[in-house]
Design brief:
Blueprint: H1 3-8, E1 10-19, E2 22-27, H2 36-46, E3 49-56, E4 60-67, E5 70-75, H3 85-93, E6 108-109, H4 121-133, H5 137-148, H6 151-158
Antiparallel strand pairs: 1-2, 1-3, 3-4, 4-5, 5-6
Length: 163
């Protein structure tokens, strides 16, 4: 897919990080969305421990988590790599070769990416199951942000009404 079109398809591109015990949310620039490495670099510039939440075309989302030099990634649907460069970069980062592999129709990456924040692999799998039925992925990410403690900040940043 053409890079410009893909950037136009980005629904959500936010970073969340804690500073002095409080959550902060900021937008990622288009320049930071080229690939997973660019996202991770942008996160490290903000905070030593940060989380990016990126949703593209209501087709898939990517979570990128940095903690010091460690980068952890979760892609909600591996088949998105057939059409989207950002999703392909996740597979490249994880050293997965074939985006047409049957296993890639499932989430790809680290299901425990948020375990230290209270959302382990089982809860993440439940959330990802909900993703298949969701009409809008920004609402799924909003639910995730609420569980992590920065839901209102997330909703304000993406223009969702907070319930």
């Amino acid at each position: 897919m053409d890079e410009i079109d893909e950037l136009n398809d980005v629904d959500v591109a936010l970073v969340a990080y804690r500073e002095d015990g409080w959550w902060n949310v900021a937008e990622l620039s288009d320049d930071d969305l080229e690939d997973v490495e660019d996202v991770a670099e942008a996160l490290r510039e903000l905070a030593p421990d940060a989380l990016a939440m990126i949703s593209v075309a209501d087709e898939f989302f990517v979570l990128v988590r940095v903690a010091g030099p460690l980068t952890r990634v979760l892609l909600s649907d591996g088949t998105a790599a057939e059409e989207y460069d950002l999703a392909t970069s996740v597979l490249d980062f994880l050293d997965l070769d074939d985006p047409e592999d049957d296993e890639l129709s499932d989430p790809v990456g680290d299901l425990d990416v948020l375990a230290d924040l209270g959302i382990g692999a089982v809860e993440m799998e439940d959330l990802l199951d909900d993703t298949a039925e969701a009409e809008y992925l920004d609402e799924v990410l909003s639910d995730l942000a609420k569980r992590l403690g920065f839901g209102e900040l997330f909703d304000d940043a993406v223009g969702l009404a907070t319930l």
